[in-house]
Structure to design on (280 residues):
């Protein structure tokens, strides 16, 4: 038995989709969630910058919060930093890319799978690489969706504007006649109604959240790290940005477990130069 918490992080609210699945599947496990809202979106940043943020957050989770495992609940960070974190953290590290792809491959009937993600995730080639390893025969169409993350962070998940943007960005997937779309960014399940509407009712949307939670359970069990299953736990939510907004919007997205957020500060500000467009 190991009652230490599990660390979960994302650039903002997106990882709450994974946190929800973890809370539901593993009720005795306590979570410490970091939303790096001061430096989001990650998707438009350089890979080395995202890697630096990921290392900084994981170090905080292990050294300060005392977590027994780190869940990288952000596709952009997992795409560029998973192996590095696994070699530096000193605790097991679980990502979202491979579990998500596995779920999509299992769901697809015709093997025509679309993956949508941030510019950083799609450009990293992480899904293309994972597909070559897991199912080289699958017909994979990848599309970056810059701007989706910002809509979710603003709490705008179902507006005309996001619908118009989705019609434009999802056109390559519609043209490729995919039968399954993997939401390869943990923010995107909050846009599922809009994405589903644009793709049509015959196309299945798959999130990485549940499959990632199953992977976490497997790793906890095989490493002897499970907590007492029936104990009462209080999850902790940390934000590097506006903690009031994090508690308010996060509570709406996750549910009643998130009713307050604590401030956390990281040393690198991640300030952007003026010509960098924040479109993740
Ligand atoms: N939820 C993150 C992901 O899965 C969003 C990245 C961003 O901040 O652009 O990629």
């Amino acid at each position: 038995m190991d009652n230490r918490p599990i660390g979960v992080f994302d650039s903002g609210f997106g990882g709450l989709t994974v946190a929800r699945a973890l809370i539901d599947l593993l009720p005795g496990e306590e979570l410490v969630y970091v939303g790096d809202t001061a430096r989001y979106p990650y998707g438009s940043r350089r890979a080395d910058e995202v890697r630096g943020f990921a290392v900084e957050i994981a170090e905080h989770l292990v050294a300060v919060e005392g977590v027994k495992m780190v869940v990288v609940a952000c596709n952009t960070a997992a795409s560029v930093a998973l192996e590095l974190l696994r070699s530096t953290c000193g605790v097991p590290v679980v990502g979202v890319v491979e579990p998500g792809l596995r779920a999509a491959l299992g769901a697809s009937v015709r093997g025509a799978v679309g993956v949508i993600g941030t510019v950083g995730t799609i450009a990293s080639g992480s899904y293309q690489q994972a597909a070559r390893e897991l199912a080289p025969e699958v017909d994979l169409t990848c599309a970056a969706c810059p701007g989706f993350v910002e809509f979710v962070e603003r709490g705008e998940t179902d507006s005309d504007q996001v619908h118009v943007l989705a019609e434009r960005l999802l056109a390559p997937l519609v043209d490729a006649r995919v039968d399954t779309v993997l939401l390869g960014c943990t923010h995107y399940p909050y846009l599922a109604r809009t994405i589903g509407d644009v793709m049509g009712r015959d196309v299945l949307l798959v999130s990485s959240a549940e499959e990632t939670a199953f992977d976490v359970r497997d790793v906890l069990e095989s490493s002897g790290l499970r907590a007492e299953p029936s104990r009462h736990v209080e999850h902790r939510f940390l934000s590097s940005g506006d903690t009031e907004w994090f508690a308010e919007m996060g509570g709406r997205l996750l549910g009643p477990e998130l009713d307050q957020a604590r401030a956390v500060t990281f040393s690198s500000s991640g300030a952007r130069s003026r010509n960098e467009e924040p479109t993740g």
